[in-house]
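Box 3.1. Reading complex inputs
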Amino acid sequence: MRLAVNPTRMELQRLKKRLVLAHRGHKLLKDKQDELMRQFMSLVKAIRGLRQEVEEGLELAFRSFTLFRSQFAPQEAEEALALPSKRINLQVEERQVMNFRVPVFTAQISGKMRCYGFYNTNSDLDRSLRGLEKVLEKMLRLAQEEKTLQLLAQEIERTRRRVNALEYILIPSLQETIKYIDMKLSEMERGNLTRLMKIKEMLAER
Amino acid sequence: MVDPFGLAIAIAGAALAAFMAGTGSAMGIGLPGQSAAGVLSEDPEKFGSLFLLVVLPGTQGFYGFLAAFFVMMKVGLLGGKLNPITMLQGWQIFFACAPIAVAGFFSAIHQGKVCAAGVNLVAKRPEQAMKGVVYAAMVETYAVLGLLVTFFLLNGIKIG
Amino acid sequence: MELTDYTISFSGKLKYAYGVGRVRALERRLLTKGDFAKLLEAKDLQEALRALGETDYSQAVLGAAEGASYEEIFRAKEGELFSLLEELSLDPEVTDTLRKRYDLHNLKVLLKAKFGEEDLDYLFLPWGTEGVDALQRAIDEGDYRGLPPWVVEAIQETISSWEESQDPVVVDLTLDRHLFSHLLTVFRAAKLDFLSGWIQREIDLLNLKTFSRLRLAGAELVELRESLIDGGGIEPEFYMGIFAEPWETLPSRFVTTLYRRVVEEGFSKGEDLAPLERACRDYILSYLRKARYTPFGIEPIYAYFLIKEEELRWVRAVILGKENGLDPKFIRKRLPSDYL
């Protein structure tokens, strides 16, 4: 697509500069994209393991909890947990990584997990809560890293769009315009030349 | 020596036999009767197999009645003509009645307990009903022995 | 034994002849291994409920409105059970002990609601002996009129220990302790050896489970001391003494107690306590089953009620497991051996 510019030598000069700039920008963005991609992949790999651990831990905890619940009347099961003693204070901060912000969770966990007596509860509940306690910190880390991953993915997408814009729109149209101006200029030159030759011929006849 | 008290004491013996054995039977039936009612309220078809267990403690009352009847015949209360009874004979008859009176009373109550347990057995395992009856019948033996002793003793007392 | 007491008096044990007969007939309708197998093998909730409808629970299943939750079925069955108890009981002060568990539950709900400043009214269970309003008044306004002394003591002690520790565990433990000592007092006063024996065994086994659960959680000895309940056949000191010993040597410690088998079976799987909990239930159920050899008295009725309650619990477990898509093998692992 040709840019709407006057086919002047000045313009040509300007466009050529822009093209050089665009090429350089494209290369830089491409590098950035590759680097982001690399980070993304390694984070994905790290998270996959963590996610699996968390999911397994949660499944175990939930299964134990379901087992506990099924052995008591629903009111009894809920009563056992009606007055929890564990407190979690979650703080979210942001940190600058590359040129975007990632969240950082800091959790203050206080109190003990067990908040019930032994009569009318059973070891399934113990096990469920122990499992949750174990998985809790991993869950926080997972949440933090998955958020980072999401932001990273967005950034990659944005960069890719810019690279594409440069690669498929700006650079080709600059090139086309340059080519056009080039052709236009040389045509004008040829026209001039012909005119001069014609004038020279006319002068010679005279 | 005919004594007006002789007859009274003999009658007391007969009354004792009928009264004690009868009371025992009533108590004895009462217990399995309650148990059976409990079972029947959940399982009415068991009436037939429970019937024997409930009526079994009733026999003692009947034995008491027999003994009393025998005394009545002996002293002539039934025939219209009273036999002359001495004081000593009166006491003899009285004590002759004691075996069925006492054995009947206690055996009926205990048989009632055995029968109530038998009712519980039938509630659980209807096919075992006869075993419950057999145990109850073992208690019955001693009531029968009591009746026999009473019978022979009365038979041995010579009047007139 | 006095003659009157034993032979003639119908006011003692013998007055329960009707009730015992009735319970004997009802015992035939307890769910069998076959019934439980059918429930466990059902493909889904609907099929399980249909299987349940063919058992003693048919009335409750039919009675529950179309589309109503299965929890209503259990509620209906519990209601049936309690009205039977009402009908058969001639010694309310003894049979009421079967309702105390629910008083305890309601007390816990009320106290936790107060301490946590939350509204937990939806957690009440209807089977207690004390009205929820009376309990509420006692807790909120200190108006203890009409409440039995053990409840008053339990409330007062719980409130003061909460103010001291702010620990919900202490709330539960204090209340549980009061319940058990109350039950023990009632049975001892009524000279019901079978039932005092039962509650003693319950305390022992609860302590055994507490001991094992705390070990597994890596708790301190102090915590164990606070959690054990007095009144059982085994002194708390015994558990304190062996708290630090490895699992392998524990069974040998229990050889001289009543619970040798329970401990052997229970600790066979190492750190998994499900076998222990099942062994405890098996032990209690087999103890209660001994009431079948008692032809007279309140014991068979009491035992029937407890056994039925246990059955209800496991029917609920199987049905809930079905609803949650739980693999039946997990329930099977916990089901008392009677039902397997």
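In summary: The domain at 9-200 of chain A is CATH 1.10.287.3240 (Helix Hairpins).
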